[in-house]
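Field log, afternoon session.

UNIT: design team B
ACTIVITY: writing a sequence onto a fixed backbone
BACKBONE:
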C-alpha cells in the first residue's frame, strides 16, 4: 500500500464476489480502491484473479524497503491515533522470508513505534513460514 491508500476487505462484498468476483473487482477498482484483503475467491479461480489484479512485490525486495514500510506504518498509526483510532498490521508468511540478514517481521519489530503500531501475529502464517509462533 502507498501513503494515504485505503483498502477494502472483500468479506464486506462477499455476496457480490460469490456471483461475479472478477466484475466486482473491476467495479471496486473503478470506485478507486487500489488495495484489497481477500476473503475467499468468490466464483473465480486464483489464476483468473491474478490476471485481473496487479500484485506488486516491489515493497518486499530489500531491507531498505522494509524500513520504509515501517516508517509508513508509524505515520499511518500517528494519523489514526489523531482520530482516536488504533492502528495494527496483520502479517502473512512473506514477512518472515530471509532478507539481507533479517526479515520484514524483524524490521517491523525493530523500527515501528510499538506504542502506536499494533503488530498482530497471525500464528497460522508464521507457522506456514516455518516460524514457531510461541517463540515469536
Amino acid at each position: 500500500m502507498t501513503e494515504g491508500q485505503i483498502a477494502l476487505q472483500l468479506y464486506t462484498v462477499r455476496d457480490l464476489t460469490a456471483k461475479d468476483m472478477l466484475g466486482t473487482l473491476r467495479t471496486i477498482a473503478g470506485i478507486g480502491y487500489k488495495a484489497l484483503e481477500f476473503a475467499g475467491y468468490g466464483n473465480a479461480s486464483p489464476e483468473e484473479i491474478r490476471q485481473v489484479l496487479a500484485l506488486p512485490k516491489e515493497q518486499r525486495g530489500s531491507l531498505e524497503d522494509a524500513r520504509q514500510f515501517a516508517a509508513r506504518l508509524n505515520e499511518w498509526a500517528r494519523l489514526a491515533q489523531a482520530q482516536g483510532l488504533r492502528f495494527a498490521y496483520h502479517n502473512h508468511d512473506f514477512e518472515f522470508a530471509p532478507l539481507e540478514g533479517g526479515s520484514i517481521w524483524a524490521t517491523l519489530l525493530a523500527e515501528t513505534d510499538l506504542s502506536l503500531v499494533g503488530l498482530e501475529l497471525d500464528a497460522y502464517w508464521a507457522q506456514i513460514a516455518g516460524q514457531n509462533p510461541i517463540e515469536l
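LOG NOTE: The first helix runs from residue 14 to 31.
NEXT ACTIVITY: expression trials, pending approval
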